[in-house]
Amino acid sequence: VYPSSVRRDGARVIVEYPKDVGELKIMGASVAIGFELCSNDFVCEFASGELAGNKIVLADPDQKAVIAVYAWSDSPITNFFSADGLPAMPFRLRIDSGPATKGLME
After folding, report:
1. Is the pLDDT reported for residue 98 higher than 60?
2. Which of 42, 59, 73, 93 has the highest count of CB atoms within 10 angstroms of its CB?
3. pTM for this model (two decimals)
4. CA-only gyration radius of the chain, Å
């Protein structure tokens, strides 16, 4: 499962997934782990994600994040899965990117 958009909503970053992928799941904890929010100078901080339907909501109280990252390492520890039990796909996307394919960082 891959996000359809990443956008800012005040002090929150919303990672939205397509509605047709089924029920998303967090396993083994009450929050999703493996997410990071990065500033313009690529200083990244881990952010716990709250599941809200087909969205993951990340807190960004300083509102400095311009990039959202998920599972972007050699051996990421994650707990966020699709309805089929498959892990969500890693990504590194600009916030407010619109459709994910337009915001992909190279």
Report:
1. no
2. 93
3. 0.89
4. 12
